[in-house]
Amino acid sequence: MNKQEQPGTSRRQFLLSTTAVILLATAGKAGAVIIKGAAPWTPFDYSPPQTLEPGGWHFFTPQEAAAVEAIVERLIPADELSVSGKDAGCAEFIDRQLAGSFGTFERLYMQGPFQAGVPEQGDQSSLVPQQRYRVGLAGLESYCQDIFKQSFADLSADQRDKVLTGLQNGDITLKGIDAKLFFATILTNTMEGFFADPIYGGNRDMVSWKMLGFPGARYDYRDYVEMHNQKIDLPPLSIAGRPDWKAKG
Length: 249
What we know:
Low-confidence stretches: none
Oligomer: single chain
Largest sheet: none
Mean pLDDT: 82
Number of helices: 8
Structural class: mainly alpha
Order of helices and strands: HHHHHHHH
Helix content: 40-55%
Strand content: under 5%
Shape: globular
């Protein structure tokens, strides 16, 4: 290195050392803000996700709704741990999802070509969820009337289980839709409704969260981060908040 390069080198070293000092000084002052005392918000001061109003059916016809309620009641039957999928509001969850963007696969690419693929390629159907339910439920009604002379909702528990098993295994043929695809769709949506935040219509009274001991959508878990394999006795909390946030005194 010649003498002409030394001033440049020293300036570079000076800048680097100065930057390091600034970073160290700043790091000593940086830290998360810890909120103590009352929460810095008031009741009703939150922005929950946009959802459809509760009450009534937004997509299903009364006959379709009865069939879906009967299906989810058998997919998640009531036992000593929780209520059934029907009583947990899974049918309402599915109905609201179908009436929204999920129902039309609004965010998915749905142009052809549509052709059968291998299992690793995933869902290749051209039917969006609204069509899958409308066509599938119509096919289910036709099948049950042909075999049992009754609607699915009027069948006994054993008969319902037999039909659902037939759909799952592909032993039943439905007009207009693959039976296994229809079963897989409604099974997945039922599980989603059972475990989703109650704001979307399912998991009524947070029944599944209480069963699992899941504390819900709380904003701060820092006090519990290091509590590994320990039960956290906190009542579950929805995205929409607690009931007392909505009750004006």
